[in-house]
User: What shape does this take?
Amino acid sequence: RALHLGGEADPVRAARRELRAYGPDELPPLTSLATFPDWVTRGRQGVGPLLYAQAFAAVSFLIERHGMPAVLDYFSRFARSQDRTGNFQAAFGETRESFEAAFRESVWGR
Assistant: This one.
């Protein structure tokens, strides 16, 4: 599958449009894309280019929802702890699962 974001003035809107064309069940949960090997594995399952649209739209939504200072706080927490789950909840005040649900709602309305 190819990713078609060209020509769109708003790349976030283009990424969301691309995701909606395939539906939520065709893409892996964001929590399953935590490491490079995760991306390689998922990419080989036929959704490779869409992973980038998904990640781009999710990060844009995260910044919109919590602001760039919270994103920077999240990454700075890794200097003290490699706990992705704990760092996410501390920086953003919600679980990764609740963020995923809100993100999917924002894209697919479900």
